[in-house]
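Lab meeting, item 3. Inverse folding demo.
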């Protein structure tokens, strides 16, 4: 897709009066690529979830661990769907650390992410950026950058790091994963982190609802999921051990427990394989 078509096919012009989830996530990681409207939303979120920045960092650590597992299983090409803004250590850094020959394709439709992503990757030969909407698998998979970079005869590692909560239906999520995996062979993987609300009347559910409601003020399509809903969405895949876990339970043995208030339980993690 020519660069001139980015805003026409991918997203709106930059609007400094509307917050961006990509820029807010950048704020959580200590980044500087944000505006006053993003900082205002971030300040509101900290009031209901002061541990959110720690969880964003831990989310990236889980993704790095998942990359290592996928690489060990023979995956050497990765598609990061909803990559957001560049951080201090990016996903392609994790990929190249375990396999210097591997390829990474970033995908995002946020205007700021597009600008920074393309600039960051100008000097990389095994890392690419495609401006596209991740909720449109056909648009992503037909993007010239994706077509050129990925070999559809070899397994791929799909990465959805806190990016699927804008897809409302569980059946829609299941179909989206199937559409992304359809062109690739058995042995392909999906790595997912997803915000969770147990919806069981517990104090944890109350905390999740408070965060969800605060986000939804600015992002109306937001949708946290239960453990059961994410399990159902992954029903066509082989969920690898230790199964679908929250970040608190995933934390490696011997390390301090995350977020003593229980906020780490609000992010589910799953690594699944295409049979």
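The presenter then showed the designed sequence:
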């Amino acid at each position: 897709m020519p660069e001139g078509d980015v805003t026409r096919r991918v997203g709106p012009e930059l609007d400094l009066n509307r917050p961006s989830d990509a820029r807010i996530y950048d704020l959580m990681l200590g980044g500087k690529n944000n505006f006053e409207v993003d900082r205002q939303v971030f300040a509101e979120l900290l009031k209901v979830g002061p541990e959110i920045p720690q969880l964003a960092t831990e989310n990236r650590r889980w993704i790095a661990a998942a990359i290592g597992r996928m690489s060990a299983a023979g995956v050497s090409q990765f598609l990061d769907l909803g990559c957001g803004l560049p951080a201090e250590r990016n996903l392609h850094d994790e990929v190249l650390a375990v396999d210097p020959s591997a390829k990474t394709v970033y995908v995002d439709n946020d205007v700021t992410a597009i600008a920074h992503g393309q600039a960051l990757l100008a000097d990389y030969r095994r890392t690419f950026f495609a401006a596209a909407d991740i909720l449109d698998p056909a648009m992503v998979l037909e993007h010239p950058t994706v077509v050129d970079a990925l070999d559809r005869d070899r397994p791929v590692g799909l990465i959805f790091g806190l990016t699927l909560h804008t897809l409302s239906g569980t059946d829609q999520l299941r179909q989206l994963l199937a559409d992304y995996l359809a062109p690739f062979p058995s042995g392909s993987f999906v790595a997912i982190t997803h915000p969770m609300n147990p919806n069981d009347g517990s104090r944890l559910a109350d905390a999740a609802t408070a965060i969800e409601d605060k986000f939804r003020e600015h992002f109306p399509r937001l949708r946290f999921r239960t453990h059961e809903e994410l399990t159902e969405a992954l029903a066509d895949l082989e969920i690898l051990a230790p199964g679908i876990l929250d970040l608190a339970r995933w934390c490696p043995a011997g390390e301090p427990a995350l977020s003593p208030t229980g906020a780490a339980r609000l992010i589910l993690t799953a690594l699944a394989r295409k049979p």
